[in-house]
Records
---
Amino acid sequence: MMGLMASDETRTDTRTEAGPAAGTETRTQARADGAVPEVPGEAPATRAWTTWTTRLLMLGIVLAALNLRPAITSLGALLEEVRDGLGMSGSIAGLLTSVPPLCFAVFGVTAPRLARRFGPGAVVCAGMVAITAGLLIRPYAGGTGGFLAATALALMGIAVSNVLMPVIVKRYFPDRVGSMTGLYSMALAFGTSVAAAATVPVTNALGGHWQPGLAVWAVLPALAVLPWIPFVRNRTAPAAAAPSTPPPGREGDKPAEQPPLRITRSRTAWALAVFFGLQATAAYITMGWMAQIFRDSGVSAGTAGLLLAVIMVMGVPLAFVIPRVATRLPHQGPIVLVLGLCGLAGYAGLYFAPVGGAWAWALLLGVSNCAFPLALTMVGMRARTGAGVAQLSAFAQSTGYLISIPGPLLVGVLYQHSGGWGLPIALMSALMVPQIVVGVLAGRNRTVEDEAAR
């Protein structure tokens, strides 16, 4: 451990002493190779420790990403058992499914400040601890209030880790952002789908009680804590302290020197925020309620979990394909339209033939849910500067998560008062229409800097 930390400190000091003339090339080569370049007087063991540290960080990123959704999808697979066990009404269950976006909106904004104070590694490590504690406590909290509080604790850990993962990838692997982001996204989608598919079989193997079936998912974040421990005391991490003289051409490293954008003056920013919010609404309704919709239609609990897993796992390949296609088009409206039509077709199938075409509807809804990577891609395309991207991303995501909060709750209320899924499915279909409209507006070839200036 001490050798590891020493190697990190050596790497930081080496970059500082190298000076601006050698800074850019040295940092680039060091990060690309996973080791610092040879420096006079530096022992070979230091470089070996640095390579090991880089690999450990990659493992930590993958394990952390695996834990950013199972707390949500595992609950969706056992929602009926949790409701019966705790005596929840449909409205309270709807509130439970609205907790994730609320926590993401509230706690996510604190992540950058925490990272500046404690270091990003320490915050992510604490996030994994919070997820572990929340998932262990919530099945045995003894009531609805305790269950909600423990769920919020786990989601708080997810929220801060969710925000800092892309930052860590960007800072530690600047020359491998695409590949590391793809690895991170794949791990996130894989963890989401595995939790949806495996929760019911694992619960049955543990005796059929929902408490251990939910608590078992605390094992994975507990393992994810381990690779982050060496980075807890490393407050000199690039995400927490960038070089005092950034390399030329990296304007995003100097946000304080950029004139602030009046982002709320941009129609594109608002369209993108609403698009992000509506796609998040659909995603959290899906994660919270879709398995229950299939179960109430006559599908077995295990099959319903597999259907939810199919919806989630569609994001693994399409998260690579959609951004690449989107960046080659001047207008992303056609992609928005295709995704929206897939969603409308999937909801229509759920309404008219939920059992007969269940697998087809799951595939269509899985494609529709891939509006998330498209939204993130458009954030990067609708601003010219690094500072603009940062402001647009913060505005679109924070506003979007706030917009998405009422959706899952409203679905629970409609389900309870109507006694069926007809009205909730109609609501989901109706929300898809404005999602298409604002998505087409957000996909126009223009920048928020130009609109804010006007």
---
Amino acid sequence: MKITVLDGYTENPGDLSWDWLKSLGDCTIYDRTPAELIAERTKGCDIVITNKTPLRRELLGTLTELKYVGLLSTGYNIVDWEYCKEKGIPVCNIPSYSTSAVAQLVFALILELTNAVGIHSSSVHSGEWTACSDFCYWKTPLTELDGKTLGIIGFGKIGKAAAKIAQAFGMKVLASTNHPTPTENVEFCSRDELLARSDFVSLHCPLTPLTEGMVNADFLSKMKPTAILINTSRGQVVDEKALADALESGAIAGAGLDVLSVEPPKEDCPLIGAKNCYITPHIAWAGFETRERLMQICRENIEAFLSGKPVNVVY
């Protein structure tokens, strides 16, 4: 059996083991695969595993030995799964592996924007506290979360996990979703009402034709000028120019983002350098335990396929 991992580095930069996969046959693991080498590296493969390296119809049509496509991600738009469905090739993703980690990063961003730990730590290390006339100082207004309102758009597993953390901080929780289910201490309302009432708006919706560019100038104009936007879902949900303009004009107070519309971003991305905008490089999923869980589910997916009972098939 010939197996290829096209872009294994982000999942496993060296702190996990691929030995279980190598034991299954002739296995080659590449850190990254540029577009011009995809065809060469997948030729003759029975199993191809990818994270962000695209597998399009034109390529898949040449892979006559292909029997299985494994994803190192939850999203599967990188693979022409419709072609694979036509040919009976399972495409299996990694669902629900990062719920706790993403919810954790939501609050890492919120806390940085409300407590400014990084700014104050840097100021202490630069000598400001040593030179201070008082026993303490603060560089920016600080905000208490207790009693504030978190508005969650999209109320799947991650949205629900974020709601639980918010409640532990004493926050009120609003949610806007197409499929509301009664949840203790969560108030469901329209999106416009959520925007008008929330001190923090956290996006947890999938990328669809309806949500692409959803956070536009009109959306942002309905938020409080003191409100903060958090996005750990998909970068394309946000109109980045509109958000940069809203931050610059003071239409909203700040933003915390783990995703952008193009990753890595181009130099002309309007949010790079935007006022009061914190951006992390798509790291919510990157904790050791989270990647370890991803690897285990990937293994279980392949073992299920080899036993004739594939699981987590995306179609």
---
Amino acid sequence: MVYLDFEKPLADVEGKAEELRAMARKSEDAVDVEKEAAALDKKAGDLLKDLYKNLDPWRKTQVARHPDRPHCRNYIDELFSEFTPLAGDRAFGDDHAVMGGLARFNDAPCVVIGHEKGHDTKSRIDHNFGMARPEGYRKAIRLMDMAHRFGLPVITIVDTPGAYPGKGAEERGQSEAIARCTQKCLEIGVPLVSVIIGEGGSGGAVAFATANRIAMLEHSIYSVISPEGCASILWKDSDKMRDAATALRLTAQDLKKLEVIDRIIAEPLGGAQRRPQDAIRAVGEGIAEMLKDLSGKKPADLIRDRRQKFLSMGSKSLA
């Protein structure tokens, strides 16, 4: 388990409990040692509740970026059957930061598209840390066109710091690809639902999340820019990231009040990284409910619903 900065007191208590259990396995007084370990477990549980009771925006940002949170691949493996990945944008190449293809959700055919960050050094480099290049967005456009043609609902799983800002990506039309992907989201006449499972960064996230229904995991974030980037621009000081995180209103709770998203999916105590299977199950239930809300709607109504949703954004205030 990787502990975040604010979880250090918890790490100490859980570490001591584990040390006692290791001693118990070697000691004849195992019962007494186990009682002490159980007392530490209770203390750790209470501490975990206190730490996660009222997380500020910066701490939520840290949780959203936790390397042990389940990633797109985990959700696809657990929630979808008969997943058939499709590769390439038919123009330049394939982008491993974006995975997608045909699948079945609750035994119904669909198209699933998501950002994949990777789980270790090798896979993170291969997936470019979830930062898509133009070919990734053009692959998503191709898959959405296919879904529209065959009347299949589209499910997107968002987890990206933002689109890749490299020179090559810009030369191949990064901003144009993002804009066209966002436009395609608005055009398809099939149900489109999106779940932000970690980071929803900048236009790279919007290009997948311009959906009829948008959900966020409880400790995920969604914003126009990262707190560090915002602090560097506004205050010329990246150390102001905590202030920036608060000012950006990037938490699921704030965005639900602003009606940018439609629902918040509860996470296990301590975040999705502590009990990944429970988090994945909750996301599956959320997706099923969102698709049920849209079932039976005509293509024109789905397009109108989606456009109106985004045209009305900005009318709410948190003041």
